[in-house]
Amino acid sequence: xxxxxxxxxxxxxxxxxxxxxxAARSPDFPAEIALVLSNRPDAAxxxxxxxxxxxxxxxxxxxxxxxxxxxxxxxxxxxxHDIAFICLAGFMRVLTDWFVERWAGRMINIHPSxxxxxxxxxxxxxxxxxxxxxxxxxxxxVVPELDAGPIIAQATVPVxxxxxxxxxxxxxxxxEHMLYPQALRMVCDGTARLENGKVAFSRGWDAGGALRSPG
Length: 215
Fold this sequence. Notes:
The structure is a single chain. The protein has helices at 15-24, 44-51, 67-80, 97-102, 123-130, 165-188, and strands at residues 4-10, 31-38, 56-58, 85-88, 107-111, 134-141, 151-158, 192-195, 198-201. The protein is α/β, with parallel strands linked by helices. The chain has a single domain (4-200), classed as Rossmann fold (3-Layer(aba) Sandwich). A 7-stranded mixed sheet has the order 3-2-1-4-5-6-7, with helices on one face. Strands 8-9 form a two-stranded antiparallel ribbon. Helix 2 (44-51) links the parallel strand 2 (31-38) and strand 3. Residues 5-184 form the Formyl transferase N-terminal domain. It is an enzyme of class 2 (transferase).
């Protein structure tokens, strides 16, 4: 099976981008990172991608009069680079229905909560305010409704006494860096596929384990 050409969309430092690039170095990984695209010219992740030998591109949203013009420029660039699949990795722009539907089933995102809990921003603060004992991250297909797409994979961490937003975020991002490459592999090799608005899996897994908190 040919490797799928993937674009990563970023707005900042690109820590999840780096984990995807590293995973794709493996010869058996079913995707190649063909492009890193940012809406911000000062995004630190662009330099990190260049250092890794990945093609980079900045399309500054501020240089376009409307959101639609910006997204059309992005879509044209993705077509020029023969991109088959998109990973959002800290891309801080809300996408229009037009763009999302154009890439339906071919665009995934990682979100720092156990969706459907805590959609949107400030997820770690809200988890602490609500007093949950487990928190985590989710990789999902992107749909027009924010953070509401079919779930591909999730990872959990315990919330412990004395946690702050920073300590909880640090624990979650470790899991993000492992989960996102795993989810991209599953989608690109057909292990996880979108069917009738839900994710179908081609194989099962051990259902005997559980994270208990407090442990």
